[in-house]
Specification:
By secondary structure, this protein is an alpha/beta fold. It contains 14 helices and 15 strands. Helix 1 packs parallel to helix 6. The structure holds thiamine diphosphate.
């Protein structure tokens, strides 16, 4: 058995400086240890997939993250591991518990995953090793993990029961709840196209702003209008753009804008709660709501009855705007620029896209690295 402090100290020496995840009782001492250390940041995610995307965003902003979760949540993480980390070659260290370890008494809901945890990790391209349980094994285990990550890979330490000594959670002050403000666009009319909204957005966005575009035609349209190193086209991991945006925003001075879709936002609605709670002031979340899964043929989403601005405010966003015209969108953007976020702008748009829409010709691997370089630079002169 090791102590949380021993792990945290060695992880720090190996460059791991950002923690996120979803708890498991096996992980309790380690997560408590991270939470008790006020010099460290732990982002409590609403799902394991969200945590993986948050850590990916943190990496883009120069951090090296550790994602901690129960192996029953490995399924939730498979999508971003395969369609975000893999194509963008974003390294992440995971600590997954081993509930349902064969031969060890556990609850019935862990039996299947316990038997396949290592196979599943291998199948999705994650190298794994046992979580070290004695202090002397810590340094070599973390050094091996760090070496693997430096080559752009994914690595998991698989934690058996009773690996870390008890660590009681010290109470922390909860952040004050600040009621958010709402701005509604009084103008109506025909909903604008996504490309028209993106044009207005680009015309009002300075060169210091980082932009993350959601899966599907949104990123393809953004690329068609302008390909800049501060653009990240999230080709996979539907719903992960806002989580990645949170991971970036918490670790940069830059303004970060997430261009989301209604389908994607609804797929990971929990992300809004995490953003509202950690409340990065530099994050603007734009939901381009065409009411359909436009990228896959126009099948309706359930967004017609969803009031995203109200959801955002209920989740703790500082500002939320609802609009249905280009003028209203511009007014909402100007408001968001003046105010401290996080802000959400919900704009109802028309379905449809350009007849001959291209795809980013720059590969995700290069997109990630130029975006990371952009984030590491000082303000544009
Ligand atoms: C996990 C996952 N499920 C399904 C898809 C297929 N897919 C790609 S884009 C898309 C629609 C996204 O809808 P929305 O966010 O509303 O954006 P829009 O296409 O309308 O711009 C779907 C279903 C995917 N990429 N990932």
């Amino acid at each position: 058995m090791i102590t949380a402090h021993e792990f945290i100290a060695e992880a720090g020496r190996c460059g791991f400086d950002f923690f996120t995840g979803v708890p498991c009782s096996f992980l309790t001492p380690l997560i408590n240890g991270v939470l008790n250390d006020r010099t460290l940041r732990y982002v409590g995610a609403t799902s394991e997939g969200e945590a993986v995307a948050i850590a990916a965003g943190a990496w883009l902003a120069g951090r090296q993250g550790v994602v901690m979760f129960q192996n029953s949540g490995l399924g939730n993480a498979v999508n971003p591991l395969t369609s975000l980390n893999a194509p963008f070659r974003i390294p992440t260290l995971m600590i997954t518990t081993w509930r349902g370890q064969p031969g060890v008494a556990d609850e019935p809901q862990h039996t299947v995953m316990g038997a396949i945890t290592h196979d599943l990790l291998r199948l999705v391209g994650v190298e794994s090793a046992p979580f070290p349980t004695d202090a002397a094994a810590l340094a070599p285990a973390l050094a091996r993990a760090a070496d693997h990550l430096r080559a752009g890979g994914l690595y998991a330490l698989v934690m058996a029961k009773d690996s870390v000594a008890d660590e009681p959670l010290r109470p922390a002050p909860s952040p004050p709840t600040v009621p958010g403000q709402r701005f509604d666009d009084p103008t109506a009319g025909e909903p604008p196209s996504r490309i028209a909204v993106l044009e207005r957005f680009l015309a009002r966005t300075d060169d210091d702003t980082a932009v993350i575009a959601t899966t599907g035609k949104c990123g393809r349209e953004l690329f068609t209008l302008a390909d800049r190193r501060q653009h990240l086209y999230q080709v996979g991991s539907m719903g992960g753009a806002s989580a990645m945006g949170l991971g970036v925003a918490l670790n940069t001075w830059r303004k970060v804008v997430v261009l989301d879709g209604d389908g994607a936002a609804l797929m990971k609605l929990g992300n809004l709660a995490t953003i509202g709670s950690y409340a990065p002031p530099n994050l603007v979340h734009i939901v381009l709501d065409n009411g359909v899964h436009d990228s896959t043929g126009g099948q309706a989403t359930v967004s017609a009855s969803v009031n995203f601005a109200a959801v955002a405010l209920a989740c703790g966003y500082r500002h939320a705007a609802s609009c249905r015209s280009l003028a209203g969108f511009e007014a909402a953007l100007d408001q968001a620029a003046r105010q401290s976020g996080p802000s959400l702008i919900h704009i109802r748009i028309a379905p449809g896209s350009l007849a001959k829409l291209g795809r980013p010709t720059v590969g995700p691997d290069d997109v990630a690295r130029r975006f990371r370089d952009f984030l590491s630079e000082d303000a544009a002169r």
